[in-house]
Write a sequence for this structure.
């Protein structure tokens, strides 16, 4: 569904307003090794003063989906143990996160499960990465977008669900290769514990 002009303007206004309160997520960002500067690159924010229809997202981290035409979606993550962990807006079509990576990638590109792993790849490594909110959000036309790359590296979490995420995407991409993280880890935790060199070596071995 194509967004109307008023919907686009609303999303831009929401992203800008919530970004002004990103300092309220400093503890969450620090735990993941991300700085305020990293957050500003992706216009992350906190819903301190929600716009109309966003009242249910109060005190959540706002994660805008940025494209060259503007903001096309915003997802909201809890900053504590509140469930559900992620929430989205109704009536907005899910898409890939960090699509700017398509313009920077050359012969390969990485796919992460979730936005925070994608942000980690983008600011802590030199490897281009896009993110999918989950295996269930994967759409057939994504495969056509990715078929021009020599290799698509699927960075899967180190658990059964992560491997299933990798396999589901790999089945739709003939040039896909799964790189699974160690047991119980994801991209962000691996970079924190082992450094970006661990990711570099795994990717070097796969391409």
């Amino acid at each position: 569904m194509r967004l109307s002009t008023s919907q686009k303007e609303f999303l831009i206004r929401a992203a800008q307003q919530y970004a002004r309160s990103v300092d309220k997520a400093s503890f969450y960002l620090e735990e993941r090794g991300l700085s305020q500067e990293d957050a500003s690159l992706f216009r992350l924010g906190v819903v301190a003063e929600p716009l109309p229809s966003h009242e249910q997202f109060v005190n959540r981290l706002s994660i805008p989906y940025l494209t060259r035409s503007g903001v096309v979606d915003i997802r909201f993550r809890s900053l504590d143990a509140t469930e559900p962990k992620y929430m989205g807006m109704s009536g907005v079509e899910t898409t890939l996160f960090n699509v700017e990576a398509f313009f920077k990638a050359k012969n390969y590109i990485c796919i992460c499960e979730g936005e925070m792993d994608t942000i980690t790849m983008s600011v802590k490594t030199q490897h281009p990465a896009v993110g999918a909110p989950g295996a269930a959000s994967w759409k057939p036309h994504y495969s056509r977008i990715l078929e021009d790359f020599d290799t698509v590296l699927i960075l899967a979490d180190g658990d059964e669900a992560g491997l299933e995420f990798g396999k589901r995407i790999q089945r739709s991409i003939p040039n896909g290769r799964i790189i699974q993280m160690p047991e119980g880890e994801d991209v962000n935790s691996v970079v924190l514990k082992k450094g970006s060199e661990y990711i570099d070596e795994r990717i070097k071995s796969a391409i």
Q: What stands out?
A: Residues 67 and 99 are 6 Å apart (CA to CA). The longest helix spans residues 5-19. The domain at 5-88 is CATH 3.90.980.10 (DNA primase DNAg catalytic core, N-terminal domain). The chain has a mean pLDDT of 93.
